[in-house]
Amino acid sequence: MIEYLIELIKKALDEVHAAHDLPGVEEIRVRYLSKKGEVSLMMGKLRDLPQEERPAFGQKVNEAKEQIEHALYVKKQALEEAELLKTLEQEKIDVTLPGYQFYQGSIHPLNQVIEDVEDLFVGLGYEVAEGPEVENDHYNFEMMNLAKDHPARAMQDSFYIDENTLLRTHTSPVQARTMLLKKGEPLRIICPGKVYRRDDDDPTHSHQFMQIEGLVIDQNISFANLKDALLKMIRHLFGEDRVIRLRPSYFPFTEPSVEVDVSYVKKDGSLGYIEVLGAGRVHPNVLKMGGYDPLKFQGFAFGIGVERIAILKYNIDDIRHFYTNDIRFLSQFKGVNR
């Protein structure tokens, strides 16, 4: 029996050595080491041996199994390595070929302007406040000193969802909500966001646009503080050589109110001005509705159209370019310094 086992081991090892592919190796494993394989069946011969010979024979069978398993493992590793080398040889990579070009997107020009203004005012101690675009009439109009029958509403009455709900016409309701949250404490905020108006779309108007409003409420706030904030913003956006001009105007939520013009040099070399935003001292009624004592607190507010800044800054001739998603237009602003 021992001699037969030795011959079986030799035969198995010779077959493993002669195997030339992985399926052949697997076939040998099944033939010798599976439950019904030749080596496994040798364990069934134990019952035919005398009691004293069984331990030695069992040990020999286990040694035979280990030898064949080891030979199969070594052969399998060698065949897999050879197959891998063959594959690598067939799939050579030419490292001199140019790589793939991955196109990176850019920040939308309007968002570039918003982030630029946010960086400026956050550095001056302001907070960035946000609010819902679907707004309540109370916050959008009434808390901005525009009563239900106020004639100034005619310029802004816009997209109503129901009698008391509309798409906000400015970001001023964010100011109203923030004033109530502060409960009479001083505040400095800017409010960027999308707003909606009843305007016909043309090169200079859109029924939707982006706006940034600013609000400061504290004690001993004067008109000089407003002019200083506006001048800082204009020079940050358009250059240190710019000056601003304030013209009297009317807004229901500020008193007094001004239109703000920024200077530019005309083709003939003379100085000209172009209107860019509206501003003013916060109206006492607005302070009172926001929870502030107008005899103790003062404030100023301003609002500027983001598209207007971008048009002036990047010399764009049509506001509609911002919303048509034309990649030829948007790709011009990749890497633009904000």
Task: Characterise this structure.
The protein is of the alpha+beta class and 338 residues long. It has two domains: 2-90; 109-333, Bira Bifunctional Protein, Domain 2 (BirA Bifunctional Protein, domain 2, 2-Layer Sandwich), CATH 3.30.930.10. Helix content is 40%, strand content 21%. The strands form two sheets. It has a seven-stranded mixed β-sheet with strand order 1-5-6-10-9-8-7, sandwiched between helices. It starts with a helix and ends in an 8-residue tail after the last helix.
What's the β-strand tally? 10
Cross-sheet strand order for the largest sheet: 1-5-6-10-9-8-7
Envelope shape = elongated
Task: Tell me the structural class.
Answer: alpha+beta
Q: Which oligomerization state do the chains in this entry correspond to? A: single chain
- At the first level of CATH, the class of the largest domain is Alpha Beta
Q: Superfamily at the CATH H level of the largest domain?
A: Bira Bifunctional Protein, Domain 2
Residue share in helix: 40-55%
Looking at the overall shape, the CATH architecture of the largest domain is: 2-Layer Sandwich
Give the C-alpha Rg: 41 Å
Gap between N and C termini: 90 Å
Strand content: 15-25%
How many separate structural domains?
A: 2
Pattern of helices and strands: HHHHHEEHEEHEEHEEEHEHH
Average pLDDT level: 87
Report the total helices.
11
Largest sheet: 7 strands, mixed
Given as residue ranges, the uncertain stretches (5+ residues, pLDDT < 50) are none
Which helices and strands occur, and which strands form pairs?
Blueprint: H1 2-18, H2 22-33, H3 38-42, H4 54-90, H5 109-123, E1 127-128, E2 134-136, H6 137-140, E3 160-162, E4 165-167, H7 172-182, E5 187-196, E6 208-218, H8 223-238, E7 244-251, E8 254-265, E9 271-282, H9 284-289, E10 298-305, H10 306-314, H11 327-330
Parallel strand pairs: 1-5
Antiparallel strand pairs: 2-4, 3-4, 5-6, 6-10, 7-8, 8-9, 9-10
Helix pairs in contact: 1-4, 2-4, 5-10
